[in-house]
Design a protein that fits this description.
The complex is a heterodimer of chains A (about 375) and B (about 190). With about 375 residues, chain A is mainly alpha-helical. Chain A has 18 helices and no strands. Chain B has six helices and four strands. Chains A and B meet through α12 of A and α5 of B.
Amino acid sequence: MEASRWATGRNVLMFAALASILLCVVGYINTPERFFQSYLVAFAFVAATGLGAFFFVMVQFLTGSAWSVTVRRIMENIMFTLPFGALLFIPIAFGLKHIYPWMDPAVIAENPAIKAKTGFLSHDAFILRAYIYFAVWSLWIFSIYRQSTKQDTEKSKQQMYVASRWSAPGLFLAVVVGTLAAYDWLMSLEPTWYSTIFGLYILSGGALTFFSIVTLVALGFRRAGVLKHAITKEHYHDLGKWLFAMTAFYTYIAFSQYLLIWYANIPEETQWYRHRVVGSWFPIAIAMPFIRFIIPFFTLLCRPAKRSLNVIGLIAVWSIVVEIVDLYWIVMPVYYKNGPQLHWLDFATLAATVSICGLIFWSRFKKHKMVPVGDLRFEQSLYFENA
Amino acid sequence: MPLDPSQIRDKLGIGDDKVYAAIGEFSDPHDLVHAGRKIREMGYTKLDAMTPFPVHGIDDAIGIPYSKLGWIVIPIGLCGTATALLLIWYCGAISDKFVIGGKPFFDFTFSIPITFELTVLFSAFASVIGMFALNGLPRLYHPSMNYQAAHRASDDRFLLVIEADDPKFHPQTAVEHLKSVGASTVEVVEG
């Protein structure tokens, strides 16, 4: 990519970041409560995407896949934004009492079930755990990223082996620590409710947005004439398969959670869905199977659709939008019982977290090569074809 | 009534006066793909290739269309969906109405796992049986086996076939055309 083009991208992102941060500050001064509530959705969106990237970059290393080599640097650069989530977490750390009901002594006093959990759900333990999560992720992400970029110049298989060795325990950690993070940040919004699969619910949604963003970045590059020959129709076909697979996987997880809770019909489990089907939350709840499964699944079902750049671009945008709706539907009913109340801060906070992560993502393209040219499968990736 | 050898040959479609194809031999998969593309550009439409492993790009080069299997699988898969839903609905809400655990007689929520399983089961059967129906396997005889080095197509040779059904086919010109695109050995095969 030419330096001028890169600089334009950086300036746009920088402007978006500054403008949205300014708006967030204004919002925080006016309605601090609303700012923190909106910010949680925005933070969860980038964190889940980063986690999805973290998991699937390691999958590329462990499976030794050749198709993904030319798009892997885009994937790695998305993954690289996750450690900086520790900075984005700071507003949450300061806004705990506006966000989480278990911070309210009155709520704890009248509910023995929450009282029994105060050892886990307390201010200090919550912050400490969050920084442990980020420390673990950062250690793994920086190690793997370092190997991958080192390979650009060293061009030896040694880096590939080291990256794989990090990746095997990393997959386990990504899911276990990611699940704990989802419990902390999103499930504890309803401190008397629990669902074991909730972590995977968030992670599978994040993985879908991750593949959507990879697709959109690659399509954007293509439009600008960058990496046009490195990322071919065959790569888009494979990205389309991943969008399709993650749509099905998300549905599987989301439906599993719903089915078991519906069947058991125990009040302490059903309360979560109860809060999300009352008032004008109901249309969103009832639309979920359609917007998150039926529309993207049947659109991507046949092979020509997965090979059409327009179709997968459209589905990628769609998946990102419905993921945001999903997170909004998970978080906001805690505060607004009767239905969604859109606020300009919802958009401003999202713009802020996304543009900050975007800046980190973009800066990597200047620092390192845009494709891992040192990978031994690079050549194979350039010319592969789907059977 | 026992058949005589000529009747058996006729039934199997291996009358010895019938020309099956002209077959050219290549020792490199890339040469095969290039040759296939050139032969197709000459106007031949009924082409085939025999290779020891799947060669990428050969389908496109010799104009073999993408498999129609998906169009067999989807209606049968949807039949599986319908079977499961109808069965659950009929058993639970029409035939034997029992209240179990306070649940409705019929509901999509509890029907989905079975519906999913039956859709997958029907689709899997449709894929396997449809695949055999479309590719005509298993079979004991194929005229290409009469090629003198047919066994090497499962080892280290790549065969390009111009079938005799091709409207443009003429034994002599087909052999010349195959030689002109770089086939090391060319043979007209009967069977």
